[in-house]
Amino acid sequence: MYLEKDVPCWYELSWDKTRRNLLIRVHKVIMKVGKGFFGNPLNGYKVTFPHFTEFEGKWDKPFWGFNRSFKRIGMRGDFIEFAAQIPQVRKFTGKFCACRGKKKFCIECDGSGKIKEIDDRRVYALSATFSQFFIAVGCEMKTSSKFPQLFTVESITGYGQGFGYGCAVSGLFC
Ligand SMILES: [Zn+2]
Question: Which residues surround ligand 1, an ion (CB under 5 A)?
Answer without folding.
Answer: 97, 99, 106, 108-109
